[in-house]
Amino acid sequence: MSPKYRNYYRVLGVKRNATAEEIHEAFRRLARKYHPDVNPSNRSAEERFKAVSEAYEVLADPEKRRHYDALGSNWKAGQEFSSPRGRRSPSGSWSGVQPGKGRGRFSDFFHSLFGGGFEGLFSRSSAVADSPEEAPRRGWDIEAEVTITLEQAFCGTATTVAVRMREPAANGAMRSTTRKYDVKIPPGIHDGARIRLAGQGRPSNGKGGPPGDLLIRVRIAPHPIFRPRGSDVETELAISPWEAALGAKVSVPTLEGPVEMTLPPGSQSGHRLRLRGKGMPLADGGRGDQYVVLKITVPEQLSDRERELLELLARESSYKPRS
């Protein structure tokens, strides 16, 4: 019986005219969601991960995708199909496919198209199909997150990241292990930036391929005073009505300690004043800026003298804020 047609586009959730970038992004998203390291002992997630990997194996390779598309979504068992004039290895297997021993990794449908000891559209003798060894394959990348303070992002820091992963045991079964990595975080790193530890991901398939990488995404915890804006930072500063009207010299917090800033007369709530070079460190040795957002506040309790002066101001002032 011929294998059942598989809609690889539907598996990845992309359209048939999807670009290579869209296919790659869909694969990364789904692979992270269903990866065995994230779903230990979850058979359903494991099957989804295999299906996603198989779809990507075909759609990410221009030649395989072209010959797969030639089938059409209405292909049925027994429908005539011309043997492709694509690249073949001397053994007869499709380039990049691991027949024989790779048979359990992909479906019957895949192997009927691209090899692996199944008789199908590109059939050949099982003696030829089963002979090649599985080719070396790079191990999977692993992603992890670490959260640091804004001060640590400003100065740079070193931290330890614990990563849980599944690895093959001596008896061939899979086991969960936790590895710890020392990570150096450079000054000025942005929220969401990734640090790559080359060769620290999952091992290869044991055939001599290189291991994957460990990708650590850095998150910056919310700060009670400062808000990072790329290489700049922003803070809010409360000022009194008379400071806003008359101008004043005020103390402003920065990541390096308080500095004195001059308020121009007639300052308004919401105005943004810039402190040059008081932001995050830059790769070229410079610094971003700090923006100070003004907020005029009024006292909740007034003394008798304060009330008297404000009442006098109200009678004497010609200022009409709603005119």
Describe the structure.
The chain folds into 3 domains: 8-130, DnaJ domain (Helix Hairpins), CATH 1.10.287; 142-220, Urease metallochaperone UreE, N-terminal domain (HSP40/DNAj peptide-binding domain, Sandwich), CATH 2.60.260.20; 226-316, HSP40/DNAj peptide-binding domain. It is built from 9 helices and 11 strands. The chain has helices at 8-12, 20-34, 43-59, 62-71, 108-114, 126-130, 150-155, 241-246, 304-316, and strands spanning 142-148, 157-168, 174-185, 194-197, 214-220, 226-229, 232-239, 248-252, 259-263, 272-275, 290-296. A hairpin with a 5-residue loop joins β2 (157-168) and β3. The chain is elongated and about 90 Å long. Residues 76-104 and 116-132 have low confidence and may be disordered.
Give the averaged pLDDT, no decimals: 80
In the CATH hierarchy, what is the superfamily of the largest domain? DnaJ domain
Number of beta-strand segments: 11
CATH T-level topology of the largest domain: Helix Hairpins
CATH class of the largest domain: Mainly Alpha
Summarize the structure.
The chain has 323 residues and is α+β, with helices and mostly antiparallel strands.
Topology:
Blueprint: H1 8-12, H2 20-34, H3 43-59, H4 62-71, H5 108-114, H6 126-130, E1 142-148, H7 150-155, E2 157-168, E3 174-185, E4 194-197, E5 214-220, E6 226-229, E7 232-239, H8 241-246, E8 248-252, E9 259-263, E10 272-275, E11 290-296, H9 304-316
Parallel strand pairs: 1-5, 7-11
Antiparallel strand pairs: 2-3, 4-5, 6-7, 8-9, 10-11
Helix pairs in contact: 2-3
